[in-house]
Each structure stands twice: as structure tokens, then as C-alpha cells.
Amino acid sequence: MVAEGSTPLVFVLAPLIVLLWLNTNYQFSKTIASAGGYAAFATAGLGKRIGELTGWLFFFNEFLTYTGFALLSFAAFIFLLFPGLSSVNLAWIPLMLIPLVFTTAFVYRGIRISLNYAVYTGLVETAVLTLGAILIIAKLGSANTPVVFTPEPVKNNLSLIGLGLLFGLYSYGGSGSAVALGDETKNATKTIRQSIIYGWLMTVIPLALNAYALTVGWGLKEMGSFATSPDPGVIEYFKYLGPIGGWIFVAVVVNSFLDFGIAINNSLTRMLYYMAREGDVLPRALAQVHPKYGTPKNAILSVAAFSFFIALASGLAFGPLIGALVIEGAASIAFMLQHFFATLALPFYARKRRALNLLTHVIVPSGALIMIAFAVLSTVYPIPAYPLNLPAYAVAAWALLGGALIIRKSMKKPIN
Q1: What domains, with CATH codes, occur in the chain?
Q2: Angle between the 48-65 and 390-412 helix axes, to the nearest 10 degrees?
Q3: Which stretch, 48-52, 83-87, 169-173, 273-277, has highest mean pLDDT?
Q4: CA dihedral over 402, 408, 412, 416, signed as positive or negative
Q5: CA-based end-to-end distance of the chain
């Protein structure tokens, strides 16, 4: 945790900032329900080229999020949980196949079965993590302190708060993933808006409570060792709630990789389908739909194949843990940029529709844009040490490649 003793501050600020940009999702979803998600939003307000660039960044973010978190982080977690496995050469490779096969099978079968799994297990996760954090906080007694909600534990170093915010915002990112399910959702505009609100609530409560409980429970003076310790959350749950509480926490964490993987895979494959169907950059074959399940079958299988090879390459280069951090760092920057373009598009879209509202279409988006810019700049200055400096370069290279492809294609085909 880069924000160390101020981590609870990050996990209070992050969901409030997320509310600012979820306003973008909420406002657009009143009238737009599309597999394009953020790309469709950006297109509606800023035009096709910016929309395609947003989709290009969204695709990059979701792809790396799925690869880094659902696959590599899952393997790294199992390694830390059972250290003996790390002595087995390349044991992390079959481990990452578990979430890959599991999530691909669910997503391939359709939205209903995958969303039902996510909803029911998500409710259990929320209940377990919320109750667990409350019990730990109660056991801390006089050790509880409000100082963790200030920058004081990191000596008022705002760059650490900013970098912590980047990962904190990224942690709440899944609450907006429903925007890409418009083509397969009944009564889409209403359902998606409800999903945005419920998704935020189900994420913010357990994460914020656990950020506080685990920070204070570890000890402010020892927080420097938190990030380097094997499975600190598991250690604390076993310490404060015993073996039963500890193993329940382990089960919830394992399922969270699968649950999050399904949500991200759904969003990612629908974006790939949308870009192939509506854009000029990706092959049309990716837009083929399964005749029985109604899912974008080629997009789903392509994601599975490319995710495996990216995870394999990163894991071989840096190991599963550092490889996951590098991948997720790049994903988080692209994540911020996709939100930036979608949010920037909102007032322009509202003006086109002659429905401009000063608060929801101008003031709130302006606040979101400022916070997104702050979080992104914190990742490049001061420059992180190798290999955590690689994400910014990777995103820049990906954006330039996408921009070049879009311009090249647009020169051959007029922009509508």
C-alpha cells in the first residue's frame, strides 16, 4: 500500500471521486445503452475518432485488468498462501489457468448465468467483508484512531496520496462495468443505472471498512512492512478472527478473483464486439454472435487466448506478483483516460440534446476531470522505479498506436 498509514484516507476519497465520474455513466445511461460503453459515450459527445480512441483505451484497460488481476494476481495469491508451491518450477502457469477457464466458461454461456453468479457471490462477499471488518474494529478498542483519515501518517506527502488514489480508484472501477451490457440487457437504460448505484454501494462499504481495520490492526508504525508481507489481510483475519474467520476470508478472496474476472470479461468482450461491429480497426469476425447463447463467441475466445499469452509473458519476465503489478499499473492509467474522455463528452452531448444541466453536466464532470488528471499525473511524477515506470510508457505507446490506426483508417473512409 503506497499510502501506508493514510490508506483509509485514500479509500474514503476514492469512492467519493468515483461518484463524480459515475455521474457520467448515470447521465449517459438515461439515453444510451450500448455494448460500446465508454466508447459509445465519447462518440456521442466528441465524435467517432475520440470515441474509437476511448474504446481503444478501454479495451487496453479491461484486457490488462483481466490478465493482471484475475489471472496473475490469483496465482500470486495462491503462491503467498501456500509458499511451498513457489519452489515448483512454473507452478503459477497452471494456477492462472483456473480463473481463465472458469471465467471464460461463464461468460461464453451468456449474460444471465454470469451475472447471477456475480450477484449472489457478490452479496456474500460484501456481507463477510463488512462483518469481518466491524469485528476487527471492535477488537482494536482503544487502538482505533482518526489520524489515518489524514495525510499525517505519510508526513503530508501528497504524491503518495495521489499514487494511492490511482490504485484506490482502480479498486472501485468495477462499479461502472455494467455500461457495456446494453445490447444484452432488458430495459437497459433503467437496469444499467440501477446496477451502477448498487455496484458502487456493494464495493465502497467493505473496501473502506477493511482499509481502516487492516491499517489500524497492522499498526501505523509498522505499515512500511504491510505491502511486503505475504498476504497481510489473511494474516490479520487469522490474528483477530481465528482460523474460522481466516479461512472464510481466504475463500472470499479466492472467489473475488473469479467474480471480478467474470465482470471484467463480460465488459471487455462486449467492447471488443462493439469495436469490431462499429469501428474500422478490428476484424469484423470478432462481431460474430453464438447462435444459441447470444454471446460474442469469437471475441470471448480471442480474449482468453491473448490474455493467457500476455500473462505468460509478464509472469516469465517479472514473476506473477510483480508482473501483475506492472500490468495493473498500465491498466489503471488507461482506466483513468477512458473516464476522462467519456466525462469530457458529457456536456457536449447534453448540449446537442438541448438538455444541459449546470450541476450534473458541467460542475460535477469538471470535478471528476480535475481528480482524474491529478491521479494520472501522480503516476508519472515523480517517476517510479523500474519496473513500475513501464506502465506509463506502455499506455503512451498504446494510445499512439491506436491514434495512428484510427487516423489511417479515417483517411480511407469518411467520418460520419
Answers
A1: 4-412 (1.20.1740.10)
A2: 140
A3: 48-52
A4: positive
A5: 46
- Amino acid type, 383: I
CA nearest neighbour of 332 among 173, 159, 177, 160: 173
Q: How far apart are CA 288 and CA 117, in angstroms?
A: 25
Global pTM reads 0.78
Q: What is the pLDDT of residues 279-334, one digit of tens each?
A: 666 788 888 888 888 888 999 999 999 999 999 999 999 999 899 989 988 998 89
Q: How far apart are CA 62 and CA 59, in angstroms?
A: 5
User: How many other CB atoms are there within 10 angstroms of residue 112's CB atom?
Assistant: 12
CA distances, 330 to each of 136, 163, 261, 278, 303 (Å): 33, 13, 17, 26, 18
Query: Each residue of 97-132: pLDDT tens digit?
Result: 999 999 999 999 887 787 788 778 888 988 999 999
Q: What would the pLDDT profile of 74-96 be if each residue is shown by its tens digit?
A: 999 998 888 888 788 899 999 99
Give yes or no for residue 71 having a pLDDT over 90: yes
Check residue 78 and give its pLDDT: 92
Q: Could you tell me which residue, 151 or 35, shows the higher pLDDT?
A: 151
Contacts of the segment 114-119: beta carbons below 8 A, 24+ positions apart:
114/262, 114/266, 115/266, 117/259, 117/262, 118/259, 118/262, 118/263
pLDDT band at 191 (very low <50, low <70, confident <90, very high): low
